[in-house]
From TrEMBL:
Boundaries of every Reverse transcriptase domain copy: 170-452
Name of protein: Reverse transcriptase domain-containing protein
Record Pfam families: RVT_1
Region called Disordered, residue ranges: 1-25, 37-60, 857-897
Listed Basic residues bias regions: 1-15
Species whose genome carries this gene: Elysia crispata (lettuce slug)
Domain of life of the source: Eukaryota
Amino acid sequence: METLRKQKKNLRKQMKSATEEEKNGLQELWRGLKARHSALSRAESARKRRSQKKKNQERFYKDPFKFARQLFQQPRSGSLSVQKEQLEAHLRKTYSDPNREIPLSEPAGLVWPDAPGEDFNSKPPSLKEINAVVQKARAKSAPGPNGVPYLLYKKCPNVLKRLHKILRGAWSNLKISEQWMSPDRVYTPKEQNSTEINQFRPISLLNVEGKIFFSVMASRLTRYLTENGYINTSVQKGGIPGVSGCLEHATMIWEAIQRAKSEKLNLDVIWLDLANAYGSVPHQMIQLALRMYHVPEDIQVMLDDYFSGFRMRFSTNSYTTDWINLEIGIAMGCTISPILFVMAMEVILKAAENSAGPANLGGGCYMPPLKAFMDDITIICSKEYETRRMLERLDVLMAWCRMKFKPKKSRSLSVRKGKIDATTIFTVASQQIPTVSQEPVKSLGRWHDSSMKDTKRGLETVELATEGLLAINRCGLQVEAIEAKINEFTRRWLGVPPELTDVARYCRKAKLRVPLKSILEEYKCGKARLLSMLEDSEDPIVKTVQPTMKTGRKWKVVEAVDEAKECLKIKEVIGQTQIDSKELGSSTAKWWSKAEGKEKRDMVINEMRLNEDSRRVQKAVQQPQQGQWTNWDNALQKSVTWNEIWHMAPLRISFLISSVYDLLPSNANLVRWGKKEDPTCPLCQGRQTTEHALSSCKIALSQGRYTWRHNRVLKELAAIISTAKGETTLPNTNALIFTTEGGAKSWHGRPVRTTNQIKCLLGGCDDWEVSADLPEWDSHPSIIKETRLRPDIVIHSGSTQQLIMVELTVPYENRMEEAHTYKREKYMNLTKELENAGYKAVVMPVEDQLAKWYSAGISNPSRDEGMGSNPGAVQKKKKKDNRETPGSHDLGVARPP
């Protein structure tokens, strides 16, 4: 390409000094070079795209979650370009506190809690507590300076026991290891091409042993505070396990605004932002909080030693700073820091909560004037003077504890008689707080602006979903308004026609189940989950207010949840029933009256999903073409996994889905879609439907097309049986004890234990031989050769005079039962002849279709014959082989023009 570029440049120079006749020839040469250069450029671009596509696919197959996270995250890059001396000066300024040793005075109005009713557990940590912390931790969590990860303690129980002894000794002797207080810290970029300090986020890498030690302490401290009621969860919901704080606070604040709007009330809402909240809380404030909440002195001593000796150093690409003492703030990444910060904030909140009365939401509902989630503080008041008094009180308390608000990042919203009032201005730290009319604010995941509506957020969500789908489409993988966008892309990636309905994509009861989820269904379940969590909240304020869940006109979440609960209660009244061919007692039922908490929420969500699936099945029954699978009573369900889709050729995926839902481009379908006028088959002149092309064309049968597909399937099936013939151990199923109604025994005497263990046909001998009606396989036994019939596979034993005849058929799904009956009757006389000759003969018809379904009438030949100690392994091998689908696919795409 470089040579062509130089030649083009030289020709342009020659054309400047050439005559008119020479210019024509030079221009012709230049156009030829340009065409060659353009062709090479396109080829090079295509090569780069193929290379990038291959790299993306390899990255995706290696770690799909990591690939997706990098695909949707904003790009972050850069390196810190700051001199060592400048960085150390910044660190000393940030983490130094000249007033660290000066105790905080006690301001007026400080609320000291009563003595605890439940004492703090000061015993050394138990092995059970340590093991719970280790098992909960992420295996990929980065290790500290000593390089020991959580994975070591997860995989090595003896090492964990040794660590337990060390931690018990440290707790008993009130000793904190110096290694636990000396983390390495690194800077990670917040945005692309970051260079300055404020564009990076510091991360601490603490030793795992210290994190485990302080995790146990944090768990005990949290339990101590909650059991004694020291933390008001109606106000502070951050850092408290088992409390859906973010959801409850965000919902309650939004509910207060909506009620003020609809009922023409007055309301002030102020979102306050603390300046460097975690990095500016004084250690004296933490010690004061520990004393106020009656934490034992042993714990206070250990925490004081921990923060007094805490030091850190920062590493960049070119240097490592000197050790810097942490004299103020808490260490990010430290497991004890969050609950200590919550305690410090609780001291401030309790001292300020009496400065204003509860906010009046109408209808006899009132809300506390303060809401907090860790450092996010929200003021909610019905009277303006109370709002200003609360702001002044919080400002005084923050100045007392040497912290401060950031007015520019704070926001205010004022409602007067149901309408937004942009003229009311509040101040904090002697600066004005901007209103949401000037700039919207995002608090606890929800945006608030002057419209007091969610309409704009819905449009932004649709745009965000579209951008995400375009990003997936551009990366080169094979692969209600929002759902419409998603459907457009999923149909394109799967290679199926636009006519494919949502039943095919999302129905879990369909004969072909693909691993896609309906965004509409997830939205409904999410709303139902939120409603259930609010109803089950232990916060009395949440129960009293009962926030309204608005979901539009078409669907009401309250009605849907109530309907699901009624269905669950009715199911409990009816009791457990048999709805399929599974044995009695093979499954257990969960009853509504015995469920609690999260289990009840899960039951409601599951019932709603079942209702959605029932709606899809009802829709499928009304579809004569795509709903044909509803009549396939003898076909088992096939579930396609993501792993299969990732490793399956794109045309195979398209054919698999299109064949099940009769969307293949047969002549009958092409006529239906207006693409062709003649629906006849070019081979036999019959009407060419999908069923006709794949299994019913007489000319294709006479040409051996169906025989070719049959032999491909037979070859794979014979290989599997031949491999598994020597494995005859079957697992025992759980035994059942039958008792009479209200009785303790089945009948007089001992209870009878029954089991549904599968009978093993291959037991009792080890000389089984496998033959198949294929050219490359051994011929059948002589007693079979003497007859006119040729079973597809014969498994025979000479020592026990046993014969198992497997007869394969590859029918269309609606003819599985017919094919099974025909094959069994066909070999009935042969079976009797063999039995008369002294053989024990068994006929096993097998129906295997293009989507790898076995007929429900015969279940699984490998399982029935007892081949393999793990029947699932045979099924996995069959799925891996993709036997019959490629054959049917080749027949479908090789149709005559």
